[in-house]
Amino acid sequence: MVGHGLIQRNLNNKGRCILISSVKYDDSANMIMEKAMPLHPKLADVTQKVVNRSKDSRAAYLAKITRAAKDGPRRAHLSCGNQAHAYAAMGDDKSTLLQERAPNIGIITAYNDMLSAHQPFETYPEQIKQAARALGATAQVAAGVPAMCDGVTQGQAGMELSLFSRDTIALAAAIGLSHNTFDAAVFLGVCDKIVPGLVIAAATFGHLPSVFLPAGPMPSGISNDQKTDVRKRFADGLCDRDELMAAEMASYHGPGTCTFYGTANSNQMLMEFMGLHLPGASFVPPASALRGALTKHGTAQVLSNTALGSNFIPTAKILDEKAWVNGIVGLMATGGSTNLVLHIPAMARAAGVILEPQDFADISQIVPLLAKVYPNGLADVNHFHAAGGLPYLIDQLLHAGLLHEDVMTIMGQGLHNFTRQAVLTEGAVGYASAPKKSLNEKILRPVNDPFQASGGLQNLTGNLGNAVVKVSAVAEDKRFIEAPAAVFHSQDSVKKAFQSGDLNRDVIVVVRYQGPSANGMPELHNLTPFLAILQDRGHKVALVTDGRMSGASGKVPAAIHLSPEAADGGPIALIEDGDMLRLDAVAGRLETMAENWQARSPAKPDLCDNESGMGRELFSVFRRTAGAASQGAGVVI
After folding, report:
1. Model confidence over 365-409: pLDDT tens digits?
2. What are the residues whose beta carbons fall under 8 Å from the beta carbon of 387, sequence distance 6 or more?
3. Contacts of residue 381, Cβ cutoff 8 Å, sequence gap at least 6
4. pTM over 0.90
5. Distance (Å, rounded) from C-alpha 275 to C-alpha 410?
6. 196 and 164 in contact (C-beta within 8 Å)?
């Protein structure tokens, strides 16, 4: 922990902090965890491929970060007028800031009180300021960034801005940090696009140490099975809106993250696996004393990691190739959200690391599925945490040689730091060893007895392009579907076809022109109840789309993120009603069996309705410049 005395010991005889300005951040590794098995050869091979592929881009990134770091304390280079503006509202902290002897934290907050997961962040800035002040340091809110709730915008026009909000958040955070008066950054964010956008910003300002502080999940509500059953009965006309509303309100009922294992909670897993959270911090509830202590402890840790602290750990040093591989391992072992297959490549690119879809596929082949959390099982993240959670999981994977131990984290060298559980000891954070046995093997299993031998996601290739399918929630007998296509250009048209009975058969529903260039790549989660009902009726059902599905989407096989997308001339634009399609999630194949289909002219629907309303007109430049889904669908990266 950093302390005022420790900061003072870093002063030279002129009273100014000595910075290690000549440091170059290479990615060399040091110690290996005792008793861990040797690294799995396939994981080593994938990592080396990433290193080789990223050689030039990573070197250019690290050179940029070295240049940014060598100038010393940020605010030392501001003019007197610059500094006066920066400190004008800082009250009693002004004198500390003017002395330039102690770190100043820039807080990037995604607080709003419409988004339940972010409502607890309302009080975090003041907690961080008090914690910093107690250690002789300072903190300021550098920027507030937007935080969109996909649960609110599902099926609405606003959902077409959801993916683009990731890059908007990165831009907004960059504007805040560009004031260049900070020695470290604290990022407050949890949900779907917020954490990826913040990580892009953290990587861009990788010369600064950073820490991500989560808010934790809301208490468990009604079971996810109950909620899903009511949704399906409503879609089938078997219950009224009042019953549906009561079920939804009992599911989402308080401050904190939604408790299913969707994108928000997959983000928390990722931050812990990559060493950007405090160990064991992801799933501690918002109102607990431990959560408050973790916020205070995280503040102390990031101060310790500054050039003015005891152990300079810039974010760039954490976000190397091994860290991203570890993140993908965590995604596969937990059956996490398919949205991270989009976000991880975009985030990694910001740190000069180039990932490809095949990397995900190769890692999925060797990483067993160790967790069953809804929509992959009945439990929620609170149950998962109680069963041993991420510390148990990381410990298991490390000892199986399925994670890189020799990585830098906010806690220092080595992922072994994250095999510990955070506990409250006399009002402060302490750490205890993770359990060596799962406390509930219906939720969390050891490596030698997994739920399945391979990971929760499968890459699909074939004559229709590249896609991904989440297999962890799909029953084994539903992973191979061969059926005629029914082609649509909107969710609403699928709903109407379901209600008319046109889909009451074996069918692969194709929803196209849903990619980033067409309409921003919205989630199509509203289709889930209709497709699930068809499956429950005994039909062979699947979805193929160049759009996205929610991290909450479950048991119907869905080939999503199909690239190239229809709007960019992808083969999906050539599919016609009745074409026989094959989705083989076991062999990793997606293809059409229609004859002479490539000789057709692509369908070109009118997309004018995507261009305006709910702010969509402001994002036309995003639609025109968005990258391919297979590369993260980035605009700024």
Report:
1. 999 999 999 888 889 999 999 999 999 999 999 999 999 999 999
2. 379, 438, 439, 440, 443, 444
3. 217, 257, 259, 260, 261, 265, 283, 373
4. yes
5. 6
6. no
